[in-house]
Amino acid sequence: MKRHVETRNRAKELRKRLTEPERRLWYRLRANRLGVKFQKQAVLAPYIVDFVSRSNRLVIEVDGDTHAGQEAYDAARTKVLEARGYSVLRFTNADVMTNLDEVLNAILIALGRAP
User: Fold this and answer.
1) Residue 16: strand, helix, or coil
2) Phi/psi at 90 (5° precision)
């Protein structure tokens, strides 16, 4: 129980401190702008995911430099989320900052909505 509360509190803090790439992507995802509801920094226990559309079972992760060397952890985490019925899209900070339209197209395709 204590761990769940800690995770929820951590997610709340992360929502307040989005990175610049997360902020840019969130601006495009929020308020049903793609026709789908997304949540930012959401708890999918035991993880906190960057963005999720629960109704579409889609998780979007924006990986910064801190993910270098964590490929095995990220792959294991993705495997757990996929086993729970979620599709996981991963983008780098550079993808979001320099190719946001391509990122949004990939998200729309994953949602089954042609761009």
Assistant:
1) helix
2) -120, 135
Q: Which residues contact 88 (CB under 8 A, 6 or more apart)?
A: 58, 59, 60, 61, 78, 81, 82
**What burial letters (b/e) apply to 22-38, b meaning 16+ CB within 10 Å?**
bebbbebbeeeebebeb
| Each residue's pLDDT expressed in tens, for the chain with a length of 115 residues | 566 778 787 778 878 889 999 999 999 999 999 999 999 999 998 899 999 999 999 999 999 866 556 788 889 999 999 999 999 999 999 999 999 999 999 999 999 987 6
Instruction: Check if the beta carbon of residue 54 is closer than 8 Å to that of residue 43.
Output: no
Residue 35 backbone class (left: φ over 0; alpha: ψ -120 to 50; beta: rest):
left
| pTM of the complete model | 0.89
φ, ψ dihedrals at 53, nearest 5° = -110, 100
d(CA 73, CA 71): 5
The residues near 45 (Cβ < 8 Å, ≥ 6 apart) are 4, 7
